[in-house]
Amino acid sequence: MSEQDKKDQKRNEVRFINSFFLAFMFQSLTPRFNYQEIRRKSTKETQDMKEELQRKEQLKEAAKKKREKQEEIEAKARIKAKTEADKQARKLKAEKEKAEREGRVLEEQKAQPTPAAAPVASKPASAYTETRLRLMTPSGNVIKSFPVDTTLFEVAAALQQEGNQVNSFTQTFPKKVFNQEDFGATLKELGFVPSGSLIVG
Questions:
Q1: Into how many domains does the chain fold?
Q2: Residue 28 pLDDT
Q3: What pTM does this model have?
Q4: Could you list the residue range(s) of the whole structural domain that residue 183 is in?
């Protein structure tokens, strides 16, 4: 082996050793860098969580103060209203006692209106189950009550049992004649609810 070959071999060995050393150093430092990155990221997440928790606590505290302030306002309003009511009651009591001593009647008592009777609400026709008919027969007037689903045929039969001949019914107002072909209609269908008046013919 020549002297030049020996130098080249020595140079290659040095290069190999340097390359191996650099590779080893890179591998040993890489996990350290990764660990530092993970630690930095974890620290940031922890800080973010702390800030979020502090923000929620601040919001909760603000809501609590707002609620307490509103409750205080409402309590003051109730106390004021009660004070005014008590004051008015004492004033009225004093005026009443004074009026009684003087034999007078308070204007407030004079002005109190008499409760009006509640109006009687009329029921719709559909709410009635019976109707009252005034039947004018040749022998006199007859007043009878029938279920609203009674037909004119059944009304005629009831009159015939009492000796009245029935050929037709006439409504007085508005005037309308119901012949035997109309006897299948019910009193409800003809509008004779809750009452009606018919001339027996």
A1: 2
A2: 58
A3: 0.39
A4: 130-200
